[in-house]
Each structure stands twice: as structure tokens, then as C-alpha cells.
Amino acid sequence: MQIPLNVLLYSLSANSIFEVQKTNLSDTFDGIKLFDINEPSYSGKNYLYLVTTQMLKSYSSHFLCDQILSSRVFLCICADDSLHAIDFNADLSMVLLYTKECFPVIFNQILTIFHDFDKWDKSFHLALLRRDSLQDLLDISKDLLVHPMIVFDRNYSILGYTRADTDQDVPDPFMEELVGTGYATPEAMSKLQADGLISASEDAANPLINYYCLTDHNCYYSMMYRFTSNHNTVGYALVLRCSTHPRTNYLYLMNMVYENLQLYFQQERFSTRSSSEIYEAVLTDILEHPEIPRQQLMDQVRYIPNLSPEGKFVLAKVTYTGTTELPHSFVSWNLRNSIPGLKPFSSQNSLYILRDNTNVEDCTQFLNEDEEKIFLENFRNHTFTCGVSQTFFSLSDLSMAAQQCAHAIRLGAKIFPEVRNFYHFSDVTLYYTWEELKKTVPVEMVISPYYMVLKEHDEEHNSDLCEIFTQFLLNGRNVNQTSSKIFMHRNTVLNKVKKAVSVMHCEFEEYHAQLAFVLAYMNDHEI
Length: 527
Prior knowledge:
Blueprint: E1 3-4, H1 5-12, E2 17-21, E3 28-29, E4 31-34, E5 47-52, H2 53-58, H3 60-70, E6 73-78, E7 94-98, H4 103-129, H5 134-140, E8 149-153, E9 158-162, H6 173-181, H7 186-194, E10 208-213, E11 219-229, E12 232-242, H8 249-264, H9 268-271, H10 278-288, H11 294-301, E13 310-320, H12 328-338, E14 342-347, E15 350-356, H13 369-378, E16 384-388, E17 392-394, H14 398-415, E18 422-424, H15 425-438, H16 449-461, H17 465-474, H18 479-486, H19 490-504, H20 511-524
Parallel strand pairs: 4-5, 5-6, 6-7, 16-18
Antiparallel strand pairs: 1-3, 2-7, 8-9, 8-12, 10-11, 11-12, 13-15, 13-16, 13-17, 14-15
Helix pairs in contact: 1-8, 14-15, 16-20, 17-18, 17-19, 17-20
């Protein structure tokens, strides 16, 4: 990999003393070469050429000619601190490095630096391909990270960290508190922001460099990097305990590490975030990590204005065609602005919408009539299906609600013959229960004998009493409602129900008899 000249000099020694002439310290190089006046220049590669002061003085005219042809940059080893760059030809592109180390030692050190950086870069990218954790990436980078670093995601959960050296006299309270909890509480974040160590502002410098004190005699510099994806902030890195201002070459070293860490945040799980709204990151994290401790959940939800971890919530999952033409980010923005009560967010390539009904009279409702019209307009010319959960009372149950949404769509499409835009889990709860029950209980244990009697009658007389009586039970034993549901005259339904009761010799006034009959019907029809 290419290494900037300033990073190379810092890697040689944090206190390197050098002079630069007609060279930019941010220029990058593919490697180091010993300069040979008879060797042709390397095409396609940008090498740094190591020379001595004697070589510069002896072949300065040749160097100038060669430099014009190939734009070479020379690193000159100098043990005499009385020499300066101006003592050589003013047109040479060179770095005069003052060191007592001999020429071979410096050459081997630089070869090792290029080798180690190349090894780090390859290991880092292989870890990214394996989708390793950010902690794994920091472990790979620990030899480069001179100072402790903590990396957060958008909702301030710690993704990884490197600790301070154990021989430091004064422990860093910022580091200890954050690592101890595994995330930044609102109180901790307020203190970090008040002390200037971190800023959520998109306009803040990147990196943001700040000066802070642990005691009257222990003061340091900090660096905050902000990671982005799709122009949204998705993470932060906080570097602590820099003993000198990082405007030195260390800043450029950290910039290299930052650029590689930025690749982690370019992964799909971050790039699919629909907006920079903080609630999105928090809800996504809760959904994808239901094992989050309750205290952490409560602390992170406190970052979201007007939302409590306990309340009355409804979740919806929306799937639709044409996500390329109508991306989740655009739908989320439209819904958030057209129906203020909704909080849309993306997780694992799916669009979810949270509704807080804590202060709403009907806590089971996802959309009222007017809101449904607006909702439909957002998906005009696109076919969509929406699964709606039952009301749940804690955001810690968000994962369960997401499962209800998925089952509502799957079972609803299977059970109801007509195509619908909205499927509610409350409409398929019994079917889902029966699916799960069959996995652990033998079917014969719960099959209604009355159903078997009525089924035999249907087979003998080619009638449909089982179907009609099941619909009668599913519609609350209401003849009028059953009639409307199956498009059959009320009197016909009533007569068939009476006939079924006479065949089975049971009025089905008790709920357990009704449930057993419906389960038998569902099993018989493989629902």
C-alpha cells in the first residue's frame, strides 16, 4: 500500500527531525529504493529514494536531470545537524532526515515499515470481507494506535476499543466509564459534549481536536472522528490521551486508520439506514439485538425526543416492489413528514414503521382512515404489503413485534383469498397458534370429535356444514356477520347452523368446544 511521507517519518520516530524542500509531506509512496544513477526509473510506481549527503553533493546535477524526467523524491540521511536543505541544490525534491543511525539501519527500518503497513492493510481488508467485528479490526490495528481509541455506532453503543497503556499513572475516567457500561449514557454524552471531546454536529471538524484535563497536572488532547454513510452520520471514534497536539505527523497516521475504519461503516447494514434521525439507529439496534440489557435500552431510548421505552406501540413491516426506484430512505422521509406519528426505519433490507399509541384512545390502531389514504399515496404505482403487529407495551419486545409482522404477511396471504395491502397479526393469531401447537402436541390430542361427526355427515350427504359452521364460530356465532362474510343469505346460514347442531348434538356455547372444532377444521384443511 502507499504510505504518506509524513506517516513514514512518524513511524521511523515520533520525534523525527527533518527539513523538507520542494516536497509535500502528504505525498504517498509505494516503497523505498536505494538510488542508483545507472538504474532506470520505475514506471507506474512512486518510490522514495534513499541517499546520503555525499551522494547528493557528488551527483546533484544527475539527480536534477533524473528528477525532471521521473519526478523522484529523495530521502537523505544526515548525521550533521549543521547541514540544511538550502546547502544542496535548491531544485531538488528532498527530505533531509537528521539521525545518528547508520544508512543500512534506516533502510531496513523503512523496508519494515512498508512491509508492516502492507500486512496491516491486507489483514484489515480480509477481515472486512469476512464481516469481522469492529473490535477485530481494532485488534488488527493496535500496533498503529499509539493512544487509546473508542468507536461508537450512531446510538453511542461501543463497537470496539483499545485501552490505554497499563503503566500510565492516572486512569482515564472517560475511558473507564464508557468501557464499563458498554455504551455512552445520556449523562456521559452530555459531559463529553460539554468538555468538547465529542460533537454530534455535522458541521464540526473531522477530526475534532480538543484539549482536556484529568487533573491539574494531567492534560491531554483528544480527537473525534465522525463516520458517514449515504451522507448520514453512522458512527464516531474518540482518541484519548494524546500528550502533544496531533497536528504533527500522528494526525496523518490516524487519518489512514480512519479511512480504513470508514470502510466498515460502508457495509450494507449502515448504508441502508434511511436517515440521520437518531431514533432510527436506536430502534434498529434494539430490533437486531433483543438481548440488550434493560438499563441500556432505557438509556438509549432517552436520546429520542418524545419517546419512552414503556408505552403502547404498534409495529408494521412494509414490503413493496421497485425499491430501486422508490428507496426506503425516500419512503421514510415522506411518511415521517406526512404522518408525524410514524417512525419509519430500515433494518436488514426491510422497512419497519413504529407507531406510539401511548396517548391515543385506540391503542391497537396503526392508521386511521385519513392516514391510510396518505399512506397509500406514498406507494402509488407500487404494489406493497404491510404486516401489522398487535399492541406491545415495551420497546424491548420490538423483535417479537417484527416476528408478528412477518407472520401476519405470510399467513394472511395464505388464509385470505382476496389480495390485501394490510394484514394484521390479530387476524391470524389462531392460525399461528395452531402452527406452533402442532410442533409439540400430537394432533389427535386436540381434535374435536364433533368435527369428525359433522365431517362424516358432509361426506355422506355432499353438504358443506363443516365450512359454514366454522365460519359461524369464527364470526362470534353471529349469523348476520357470517352471512356477510361468506356472501350467503341469512336464513340459509341459520338453517345450516341449526342442522349442524342437530347432527352433532352440541350447542357449542363453551369456548373450549368452539376452539377444538376450529382447530380440527384448520388441521383438516392444512391451514
